[in-house]
Write the structure tokens for this entry.
Amino acid sequence: MTANVVTLAIAHLRISLLAVALGTLAAAPLALWAVGRPRVERAVLAVASVVQTIPGLALLAAMVPALAALGAALHAPVPAIGELPAVLALSIYAVLPVLRGCVLGLTTVDPAAVEAADAVGMTRGQRLRKVEIPLALPHVMGGLRTATVWTVGTATLATPVGATSLGELIFGGLQTRRYHDVLVGCVASAALAVTLDGLLRLAESRASSRRGRAVALGALAALVAWAVIDTAARALTSDAEAVRIGAKPFTEQRVLAAVLARVVERKGAHAEVKTSLGTTVAFDALVHGELDLYVEYVGTVWTTMMGRTDMPRDGGAVRAQVDAWLGTHGVVVAARLGFENAYALVVRADTPYRRVSDLGAGEALSLAADYEFLSRPEWASLQSVYGVRFRSRRPMDPSLLYQAVATGAVDVATGYTTDARIETLHLRALADDRHAIPPYDALVLGSAAFLRAHPSIAAALRALDGTIDDAKMRAASALVDRDGKAPEVAAMALDPGTGKGSP
Amino acid sequence: MTAAALSGRPIVFEGMSVLRNGRTVLDRIDLAIDAGELLVVAGPSGGGKTTLLKSINRLVAPSSGTITIGGRDAATIPLVELRRSVGYCFQALGLFPHMTVAENVGIGLRLAGASPEEEAARVDALLERVSLGPRDFRQRMPATLSGGQGQRVAVARALATRPPVLLLDEPFAALDPETRASIQKELLAVVAEEGPTTVFVSHDVGEALRLGDRIAIVHGGSLLRVDTPAAIVRAPGDPRIAALIAPARESARVISALVGP
């Protein structure tokens, strides 16, 4: 992991604070409107509760197409990935606890105090400021504290929509099997939550001294002010000219994004890499002009984006249809890198099997597969094309599959053809000699508009065509996974331009 | 705000009715309360006493008829101005739990824009006057006060702006009988000194007879009679009034029998 934990924690804190502040700004007037109108109150709380039941990741991911649609409707450039969807989704999440706290607080104010406020001649506003809000405050602060802790926790899920947060350590760590990073990310996020909660408790508590409260309140106000100012400053100074490169959350993608960044920067442009994007998030961002480049695989476009379940034996036909379909979405294949990262059946290198057809029906062999494989069209295709059945089939966590084959616990496992562990654990990916699995050629996808506008970058990317084969890709990933090198270092080995120009 | 308001103002009800959810709570009340008078509104619970009281500072809006205060139609006085010129103290007290005793007493002065020095002086004088030494009680929170102390703070708060009208809605009802009698006597003496026109609601007719300059008997939404305690006891007239004062009469009879002829 290249970005250090402090940088990530600061970004995490910033989006969390913005989200809580926005959520509170939305919840407070809603609460004031709802209190005293029982039907409105019920409706508002019901809507907020339903929103709360949407899983955090789904709400965050849903923001991306929602913002893209908004941008299209307004004919305005609304950023659909990055901090905006993250902060918006998180603030929607923060609304309910704050709203509930406000409503509960305002409705439980002693009616005698309210009557007394009226009787001493307070205006509606004075009654609210001097009596109702102060008396509602313990509940409001309780809601605010809940919202803060939730938001800081949920902000780790902001990574797949392209916002920088501690989630990068967690997602990246899980994907590249650096459990130390995962732990650091979790602990740092928990520490942030506990610290903010402590400040809020100090600011609210009658038990703390006046001075302690003032210090805590001042610290919170300063933090929120910093979050707002820093974000505004970033928005104003944002590098509009930067070429935006996406990466999905696994090692190979990070290395390839770094390769693309090198190519782009050699052409004098500035590159900005957004890591750990979800597959559909990255593709949608490319279509909507939020990303300029990222690496995708033919089979993924075929099954996930195009929604195809048929597996034509003719790889060329699949490639052609994929290219045509991409074209209708304003996406161009900027380069075909030359390797495939396909689903493959993996065996130990010391077995005689080289091709899937060598397995026969595989009646004496056991298979371990990742959770989704056995329900994917690729498996149905393998069965019908090769007639493989296997003696036993069991689903297993993807991170354990290679180990399971290497130790002999199973004979065959599903894997990805370019996974570095195939080499390091002395395994072999069987060749799909009858083309049961669609091609998973790695493609550099670019937005058509971007490539038209930057012909020299387009030409430089074209030069990547066929330069990276399976073995080179595996070796580069192994530099990261096995040797702990940064993806940028591994990228040097893959970049055909290394040593040829100023980097 | 200071000297000018020292004397109370007359309050006149003319044909005032209050309807709530189509039900008549008060029916065509005609009542003239003299400046500086202590009028006790007595009668059974649910008869409309509190509604009568609250219609004066428009915590309840009259449905028809008028109320004039010092010759001014109360309906035309801006609400906030009206309420700031009417002290109000009720059984639940309504002390602001997040404010100190001094802040509670001074709230009306602050709303009226008094300077902190003015406020502090008036608050201290009032606390002294209701026997809560300012040094000990200024900074206390309402939750730490006894029932009787709370009543004293509530009365001090109602008097703080020297209102020409003071409304007391059974402010002592929650106290035990002995404390109640002594606090009542003491606080009403403070009220008399300040001199506002005072309307005091009580469901206890014995108490009404003891305290009021005059008594207004409200029963089932109607004003049955307004007269001095002596006149009412001598000739109740209406059998409903006779029934109301019967318990007081009975205890007086028992006591005089015990004391002997």
Summary: The interface with chain B takes residues 110, 112-123, 126, 130-131, 134-135 of chain A (CB under 8 Å). Chain A has a mean pLDDT of 87. Strands of chain A lie at 243-246, 271-274, 293-297, 331-340, 343-348, 366-369, 392-395, 412-416, 427-429, 441-447.
